[in-house]
Amino acid sequence: MPVYRDEAVVLRTHKLGEADRIVTMLTRAHGKVRAVAKGVRRTGSKFGARLEPFMVADVQLYEGRNLDIITQAESLGSYGALITADYGSYTAASVMVETADKLTESEGSLQQYLLLVGALRSLSRQEHGSHLTLNSYLLRAVSMAGWAPSFQDCARCGAVGEHSAMVVQLGGIVCDSCAAPGSPRLDAATIGLLSALLTGDWEHASASPERTQSQAAGVVAAYTQWHLGRGLRSLEHVVR
Fold first, then answer.
1. What is the pLDDT of residues 130-143, one digit of tens each?
2. Percentage of the chain surpassing pLDDT 70?
3. Residues in domain DNA replication/recombination mediator RecO N-terminal (predicted)?
4. b/e code 7-38 from CB counts within 10 Å (16+ = b)
5. Using an 8 Å Cβ cutoff, are 131 and 213 in contact?
6. Can you point out the beta strands (E) in the chain?
7. Engineered SS bond to 165: which of 42, 68, 110, 179, CB 3.0-4.6 Å?
């Protein structure tokens, strides 16, 4: 059977039988892969800890009839223990891998892989607030998937100017002419923070007041879930 190697970040795992586990991974070159890791739930397993959620590993697999089989795993990023030690980081990472799982259902993406690995690395190092890292990741992930939001010009007609109506169904901020009656309005601080999260302006994002960060988080959650076409179950546990 054909054997191949790839870098992979573990999205989720499921028990299989008494000692095995099905591991769902987003790989660098082969997209999303579901594979069986045999014997990893045994105490003496050589690579069980390397195949936990949020871990990044160099894996060797061979193609099976229904599921591929993992034969080797070498750690590239041991982020799991550091992330799970902090509840805020853990809940943020859970939303990230759930989002990546949904965005890559049909095919993988090198950009999505690199974005997820970078976000998990940042969480493990606590480089920024976990909620800021999460919201930046979500905006960038949906943008890479083809749903880039507009936080400046009107998302519907392209009118230039300072607009304040937010309509997630139309792609972001819209002008008064395109906004439906009753559309929610965002203040300039929240719009500025959303732009900073999308572009990676961490100095601006970190300096934003808590109220502004909370409002931006609500917008990001609504925007992401609308374009995914489904809710994110892990989002309800995120620390705000």
1. 999 999 999 999 99
2. 97
3. 1-79
4. bbbbbebeebeeebbebbbbbbebbbbebbbb
5. yes
6. 3-16, 20-27, 32-37, 56-62, 68-77, 165-167, 172-174
7. 179
Domains of the chain: 3-80 (2.40.50.140), 128-229 (no CATH)
Name the pLDDT band for 67 (thresholds 50, 70, 90).
Answer: very high
Residue with tokens 């929610």, as numbered in its chain: 184
Joined tokens for residue 165:
């109506």
Torsion of CA 182, 216, 148, 54, to 10 degrees: -140
pLDDT of residue 240: 65
Mean pLDDT of 2-23: 94
CB atoms near residue 184 (< 10 Å):
14
Burial state string for 125-162 with b = 16 or more CB within 10 A and e = fewer than 16: eeeebbbbbbbbbbbbbbeebebebbbebbbbeeeeee
Q: What is the amino acid identity at position 168?
A: V
Q: Per residue in 146-173, pLDDT tens?
A: 999 999 999 999 999 899 999 999 999 9
Residue 23 token pair: 């591991």
Instruction: State the CB neighbour count (10 A cutoff) for residue 115.
Output: 19
Separation of alpha carbons 172 and 135, rounded Å: 15
Nearest to 155 by CA among 112, 116, 204, 194: 194
221-237: average pLDDT:
94
Cα–chain center distance at 161: 31
